[in-house]
Amino acid sequence: MKLDIILITYNQEQYIAQAVESILMQRVNDDVQVRVIVADDCSSDRTLEIINSYEEKSPFPFVYLPAENNMGHVRNYQRAFAACDGDFVAILEGDDYWTSPIHIQMQLDYLV
Asked: In the chain, which residues have pLDDT < 50?
């Protein structure tokens, strides 16, 4: 089973570390392949730099969607969903975070 986690970001430097840490703490069953799709809307702060600093610690691969210009919230979401090919998609915005390490697995268990 494949799961894509969309991480939507735009100038969320002060929040993004907690958001990424909440993704990295997720524990999923061995049969679940997870990847993180980073959809940054051309942030002008350190948002992407902070995300990059977590990548080597991640058990999940990161896919970065390039943005040369700010496209707005809706188009950023649209391109993020277009990049997904997983059986399931989870969404986390850069100023939010998950509190339970089994958050994703509980949702998958319910859906499957």
From this structure: none
